[in-house]
Specification:
Length: 628
């Protein structure tokens, strides 16, 4: 038997195009061929289960081998095999509607996945790395003859009688000169480790040494020898494919380590996803301890389709705020091979997105209710996800309002509702606003914190990267008439302005004089001096930073670009306490003495908020030494 023919596409020069275009992604040839081998193995298993195949199944395994000298890579399976007719039908007729369409589309395509999936070029990806491909196959069907197919990447092929004596298929790639890098254990091993790690049929690649028991030594102790064994590179039954009821905590933790062997920490908790309607999706998402940038980059969520690794670029499929999670999502319903814009519009993708969001919110709520203490302990690690989610996703926020926590400087945690109840009667100003006070840096803002605490007020800690935005969120959604102010946004009596008014002990002339002295002593463009009536026990001078302007600037920073507000200078206010005895003394001192004291009081205010640095700090120290 010998037959020559022509592969049925319209364009003669399609392979050079595929080869050239797909070059950057060419390693996926192995994913495609190994997946085909796995599919063929699963098909024979299914036929056997259905009673349509009555022979011996044998050990279903896929072998990947390479031969450096012969420059070949061979993928072998014991699957259903193909007759010559089937090879012609399945391999020769490329499953896309027309080469013309392909030629038009490939120009817009973004990556190899897109082309391969869209046009059913799986098998043909072999030609990205091979200049000749052979198939040796024997079908499972009774009386089938082995067939051999060979093709050099042009559109002509040749079919002859084959040599295979056992059911299954060998695909033999004659690796081209540009792709010799693939003829190495390291390179092929890496690719398999990336794509085939959790395939449902064992994949064997090379050998490894394993220590095995071998009788006893003279003292009766067990002896071990190193034996060369086949290397099965995959776990065919990964945790996410099992029923949640089958798994214990240890199993989830073990799977986490399997996924991310380099991770130092254990995950905080996890969510097992499992839906089959209206789309198919399984997976396990882990909440990690807060990671550094590098680990976030490395330990990303991995996307699989029927246990074949597809990508760890899960943008569009996973809601953005959950991209910081880790783990696996497996769904045959995600259109993996289409362009970005299509993916965003795809209704399945939207449903999947919503489903994941809902599942995550429900799970968090469940943990919160079942073990509030544990949840509070984990808050520092998970609050970033939750706040990000609340800020970016209304549906999530609705649910998260029940378990989102506020922590104060004493380390106590409150839900949004609880906190409102806690402070609403004390921290209310003359206009009925409920003022939430917060610190973004407990050590730096210590002076401000203790002065508001002296008034009986509570101080929240909002020191995360999203907390400026979160403060704005709480104002809008946390309850009626809430205002959030950082403790250093103003002097304490103005942070929460009550009805009672403190009288100013200075005459109008004295106020003008005090202003003049301080303005001269301070001589800074970015600081406005105000003489005000505070309690005599308050500090003589405070430097505060307006909440609104500071927040706008902070937001401009976290929003990426600086924007309009980002370009403005800081807007400090210097409040001189007209009721403090020192101020009276300054007014009554000689000009020189008064200015020196004013400067000293101002520097102390700067010092207490960490703003006194450089030459100013040096001269402050010098002046202080002189004064004592
Ligand atoms: P796809 O896998 O997307 O259908 P491919 O081009 O990879 O596209 O393969 C085309 C067809 O060739 C497969 O659907 C299958 O019927 C057949 N085939 C490929 N490889 C094998 C194999 N190792 N054993 C049996 N059949 C195979």
């Amino acid at each position: 038997m010998q037959e020559k023919g022509s592969i049925s596409i319209h364009t003669e020069n399609i392979f050079p195009v595929i080869k050239k275009f797909l070059y950057s992604d060419n390693e996926i040839f192995l994913r495609e061929l190994v997946s085909n081998a796995v599919d063929a193995s699963q098909k024979i298993k299914r036929l056997s289960a259905l009673g349509q195949f009555k022979g011996e199944l044998g050990y279903l395994i896929v072998d990947v081998k390479f031969d450096e000298k012969a420059k070949t890579i061979t993928i072998t399976d014991r699957g259903i095999g193909m007759t010559a007719e089937e090879i012609k039908k399945y391999i020769n007729q490329i499953a896309f509607s027309g080469a013309t369409e392909f030629m038009e589309k490939f120009k817009e395509a973004n990556d190899a996945n897109e082309i391969i999936g869209r046009f059913g070029l799986g098998f043909y990806s072999a030609f990205m790395v091979a200049d000749r491909v052979e198939i040796e196959s024997l079908s499972f069907q009774e009386g089938a003859e082995p067939a051999h197919w060979t093709c050099d990447g042009s559109t002509s092929y040749e079919i002859t009688a084959g040599t295979r004596t056992e059911r299954g298929t060998d695909v033999i790639l004659h690796v081209n000169e540009e792709s010799l890098e693939f003829l190495s254990e390291g390179r092929l091993g890496d690719i398999l480790n990336k794509y085939a790690r959790f395939l449902p049929v064992p994949v064997r690649f090379g050998t490894k040494n394993e220590s095995q028991p071998d009788g006893e030594d003279e003292e009766g102790k067990p002896k071990y020898v190193s034996v060369e064994v086949d290397r099965i590179i995959n776990n065919t039954n990964p945790a996410w494919t099992k029923a949640p009821s089958e798994l214990k905590d240890e199993d989830y933790l073990a799977f986490y380590r399997e996924l991310y062997p380099l991770s130092m920490d254990e995950p905080l908790f996890w969510i097992h996803l499992n839906v089959d309607y209206p789309f198919n999706l399984t997976g396990i998402l882990y909440f990690p301890k807060v990671k550094n940038e590098m680990e976030i980059q490395r330990n990303k969520i991995q996307l699989y389709s029927r246990q074949v690794f597809i990508t760890d670029e899960v943008k569009d499929i996973v809601p953005e705020f959950l991209m910081l999670l880790q783990g696996v999502i497996d769904s045959p319903d995600i259109p993996l091979n289409v362009s970005r814009s299509f993916l965003q519009a795809d209704s399945n993708v939207k449903k999947i997105n919503n489903y994941i969001t809902k599942k995550v919110a429900d799970k968090l709520n469940e943990i919160f209710k079942a073990d509030r203490k544990g949840f509070e302990d984990k808050w520092n690690d998970i609050n970033l996800f939750i706040k990000y989610g609340m800020l970016s996703d209304e549906k999530f926020a609705e649910k998260a309002n029940d378990f989102c926590l506020l922590k104060n400087t004493a380390g106590e945690s409150y839900t949004l509702k609880e906190y409102y109840e806690k402070v609403k009667d004390i921290q209310v100003d003359k206009d009925g606003n409920i003022v939430y006070l917060y610190a973004s840096d407990v050590a730096q803002q210590d002076g401000f914190i203790s002065s508001v605490q002296a008034k009986g007020y509570d101080v929240l800690v909002l020191d995360g990267p999203l907390d400026t935005h979160f403060a704005a969120y709480v104002e809008q959604k946390g309850g009626e008439k809430i205002q959030a102010k950082r403790v250093d946004a103003d002097v304490v009596d103005k942070l929460i302005q009550k009805d009672e008014k403190i009288d100013l002990q200075l005459s109008e002339d004295e106020v003008t004089k005090a202003s003049g002295i301080f303005e001269k002593a301070i001589s800074r463009q970015d600081m406005k001096v105000e003489v005000d009536a505070l309690a005599a026990s308050d500090l003589p001078v405070s430097v505060t930073l307006d909440e609104f302007m500071r927040r706008m600037k902070d937001m401009a920073k976290t929003g990426g670009g600086m924007g309009f507000y980002g370009t403005l200078p800081d807007n400090y206010k210097v409040t001189v306490n007209g009721n403090h005895p020192l101020v009276k003394r300054i007014i009554e001192s000689s000009e020189e003495e008064g200015e020196k004291l004013a400067k000293q009081a101002f520097d102390l205010a700067l010092l207490s908020r960490g703003l006194l640095t450089g030459a100013d700090l040096t001269s402050f120290v010098k002046r202080s030494v002189e004064m004592i």
